[in-house]
Design brief:
- By secondary structure, the protein is an alpha+beta fold.
- Helices cover 28% and strands 21% of the residues.
- The strands form 4 sheets. The protein has a 4-stranded antiparallel sheet with strand order 6-12-11-10, with helices on one face. Strands 4-3-5 form a 3-stranded antiparallel sheet, with no helix packed on it.
- The mean pLDDT is 94.
Length: 234
Amino acid sequence: RGLWGIENLSLIPGKAGAAPVQNIGAYGREAKDVIERVEMYCVESGSMLTLDAAHCEFGYRESVFKHALKGRVVITAVEIALTRTPQPHLGYGDVEREVEARGGATLRNIREAIIAIRRTKLPDTAELGNAGSFFKNPVVDQPVAERLKTEWPDMPLYPAQEPGKAKLAAGWLIDKAGMKGYREGRVGVHERQALVLVNLGGATGSEVIALARKVQTAVRDRFGVEIDTEVNIL
């Protein structure tokens, strides 16, 4: 319908209700950029509540629904605000290149480019068990980022929302720590996207978590950086 705002989130699997919980995001855009309010059912009182975006405590893959309201509400609807004014966000090299190859920054071209990139990098959940990106991109103090950039000139570096901070690429860190494509029994790190852990067939949750801890240790030992999980682990 010609509405801009969520085209960069194309092909992210999941339900609408999960979008604010995780503040899902990709290629420079997040759910918080378009969410106006969230409607929910309160388990404790049995009443319906509405929470404005300003009170959702959105952060990088964070929200109040993962903390203070965890287990206490069921999200029933999400109100989002889109626009007819073109607002292309092409800050990632792959996206800009793919969009230009399709003839420029139209809504259709951006959506098709995002979908094509995701399909080349990420495994199909119907064919290979995975939970999408398993790790968050770590946010570190600017001096730490500058020191690492000096040691690793090809290291990707992105601005963070917090002043005095910078965001590192967890996938790059995992790759350089020697874990991209690593396999152990029935679990592994995806060979095309190091952020993704895959179930090779019949693996248990404990096996997946054990591999995640091994990946975290490898990155810590190599770079002195902690990477946290994006997946909720109960």
